[in-house]
Design a protein that fits this description.
Number of strands: 4
Radius of gyration: 20 Å
CATH class: Alpha Beta
Order of helices and strands: HEEEEHHH
Strand content: 25-35%
Structural class: alpha+beta
CATH superfamily: SecB-like
Number of helices: 4
Shape: elongated
Number of domains: 1
Strand order of the largest sheet: 1-4-3-2
Largest sheet: 4 strands, antiparallel
């Protein structure tokens, strides 16, 4: 136990050692949102099979002693044929999470798996609403396995830096 525990974002003392690791959701919010349909209204008369491309990114930034902002960015691009853009929908769903008392490798895993798991349903709902508000049929993104994505990221990090990354993976 440490008598020098810093205060958390709410100003209260953090009894992390006495109670074990703690994970809290401090705030969930939309950081940025965008919807474009550059060929509307003509695109509504097209009959071709649309192609959907999804881009998924995540950013983590420390915003306090035990607080982290995680931003989950999802971009959906729908096209018809060769480069004929139907719509582009982008959401940056963010949250501030309190993580106290976690070892470094567990903290990294929490930020890479649990935080996006909390944010994804909000981003998924907002994207569906944007697409429908744009005049297109309702669209619901399928669930994403962030644990598998995180594990793949660890494998890629290990392949890039054989030395210390392998030691980190071995301790996980």
């Amino acid at each position: 136990m440490s008598d020098q525990q810093p205060a958390n974002g709410n100003g209260a003392a953090t009894p992390a050692q006495a109670n074990g690791p703690q994970f809290t959701v401090e705030k969930i919010y939309v950081r940025d949102v965008s919807f474009e349909s550059p060929k509307a209204p003509q695109i509504f008369n097209e009959q071709a099979q649309p192609q959907l491309n999804m881009s998924l990114n995540q950013r983590v930034q420390r915003v306090g002693e035990n607080a982290y902002e995680v931003v989950l960015q999802i971009t959906l691009t729908c096209t018809l044929g060769e480069g004929n853009t139907v719509y582009v929908a982008e959401v940056q769903q963010a949250g501030v999470f309190g993580l106290i008392g976690f070892e470094a490798n567990v903290l990294d895993a929490m930020l890479g798996t649990q935080c996006p798991n909390v944010l994804y349903p909000y981003a998924r709902q907002l994207l569906g609403e944007l697409i429908q508000a744009g005049g297109f049929p309702p669209f619901l993104l399928q669930p994403i396995n962030f644990d598998a994505l995180y594990a793949e990221g660890l494998r890629q990090r290990a392949a890039q830096g054989q030395g210390e990354s392998n030691e980190t993976v071995g301790n996980a």
